[in-house]
Design goal:
The chain is of the alpha/beta class and 376 residues long. The chain is 30% helix and 25% strand. The protein contains 10 helices and 20 strands. The strands form 4 sheets. Strands 1, 2, 4, 5, 6, 9, 10 and 20 form an 8-stranded mixed sheet that branches. A 6-stranded mixed sheet has the order 11-12-13-15-18-19, with no helix packed on it. Strands 3-16-17-14 form a 4-stranded mixed sheet, with no helix packed on it. Helix 2 packs parallel to helix 7 and helix 5 crosses helix 6. The radius of gyration is 22 Å and the shape is globular.
């Protein structure tokens, strides 16, 4: 009798494990619709032979990441609109926001993940649907926030491939230089022109793609992750910033809060930087109007000339940007582009702005995707 019960239990267990294995492999095709509209928030200057800096502030949702085709359709629609307005050319540098690539962790998942009301539940579905990837990543995780480290690490190989395929493809499709926002990956590096990941620490990086779809330079790692991300993202061990030759001029990339620090502008200046791209992101629906938090545990407020609470988040970003660094920066223009949208119960705020010839040009806080254009 005991043997019979054990046999029955084994059969049921095997059946359940088999059903679970089949369930984890089932990935329904994407069918969610998304708003593809975009409007011009800023069009500064007049068309000239020097080209232009064009920021795309998308309005994104978790369902936009159900497939690469869905995300491509949305971003290509924005670029097509810009092209119809005469804003795209061989000397156009397009800048996308921070973490537009990081969210590729959600690509190709089950419907339950996208339908979850809260990010915490979406994270649970991610683990349920990818048990082996989750287990391996958990063993490799090195950060203080091990759970978040695991979630970002577990699909890093596919994320790196998707990031290069999508954004390199868009650069080639539209014949532009594309600053592909940023993506968090473990020990990322380019090998023979292909983005690879390792098993080391997580870094927030940005890649620039040329009009032929190939990367320019190496991944630029963020120097100063914000105080939340530092629980799982490491600052770059190399303090050097790249300056890349593009058809529109020599370009530097400052990721997020890297754009606050005078020493970074001085370094770009020494390398002949003419244009600066700042992919940025802020967590919170109305965070732009809240008190500036700074980087609390860095204690470098004297260097920045601002203390937390003195100004709003928006005022701090604009005051610490290129326009206020004129004594050390020779760049003639910069653009700061923020990620906007809702990802489960989390909102991404911030208002994109541009600097040109020492003047700051803000945008309003309206809904929807925005184009921020500077003619050089």
């Amino acid at each position: 009798m005991a043997r019979l019960l054990l046999s029955l239990f084994s059969i049921v267990l095997v059946a359940m494990l088999g059903a679970y294995a089949v369930w984890t492999q089932d990935r329904p095709a994407g069918h969610y619709l998304s708003d593809l509209r975009i409007q011009v928030a800023l069009d500064e200057g007049v068309p000239a032979e020097r080209g232009n800096l064009l920021g795309i502030q998308p309005e994104l949702y978790a369902t936009d990441y159900q497939s690469l085709a869905s995300l491509h359709r949305k971003l290509a629609a924005y670029l097509n609109h810009a092209r119809d307005l005469g804003m795209l050319g061989p000397k156009t540098i397009v800048v996308l926001p921070e973490h537009i690539g990081t969210l590729l962790w959600a690509r190709g998942e089950k419907d339950e993940l996208y339908q979850a009301p809260r990010l915490a539940e979406a994270n649970q579905w991610l683990g349920y649907s990818n048990p082996l990837l989750f287990a391996r990543a958990w063993l490799d995780a090195k950060s203080d926030d091990r759970a978040q480290d695991t979630r970002l690490r577990m699909k890093s190989h596919s994320m790196a491939s998707d990031y290069q395929q999508l954004f390199g493809g868009l650069a080639k499709e539209f014949g532009i230089t594309l600053v592909a926002g940023s993506i968090i990956l473990p020990n990322p590096q380019l090998v023979d022109g292909t983005l690879h990941v390792g098993r080391g620490s997580l870094y927030n990086i940005s890649l620039v793609f040329a009009a032929d779809g190939k990367p320019l330079g190496q991944p630029q790692r963020q120097l100063y992750p914000d105080f939340v991300q530092r629980r799982y993202v490491q600052p770059s061990p190399d303090p050097q910033l790249q300056v890349l030759d593009t058809p529109a001029g020599r370009l530097g990339v400052l990721i997020g809060s890297d754009s606050w620090y005078p020493a970074n502008y001085a370094q770009l200046n020494a390398k002949g930087c003419e244009l600066i791209a700042v992919p940025a992101a802020l967590n919170g629906k109305d965070v732009w109007r809240e008190s500036w938090r700074g980087n609390p545990d860095r204690r470098d407020f004297e260097q920045l000339g601002l203390k937390p609470g003195e100004v709003t988040e928006g005022e701090a970003w604009q005051r610490l940007s290129h326009a206020s660094q004129a004594t050390v920066s020779t760049a003639r223009a910069s653009i700061s582009v923020f990620l906007r949208g809702q990802f489960w119960d989390q909102f991404s705020g911030g208002q994109s702005f541009a600097n040109h010839d020492g003047q700051t040009h803000p945008t309003d806080d309206g809904r929807g995707a925005r184009l921020i254009n500077l003619w050089l």
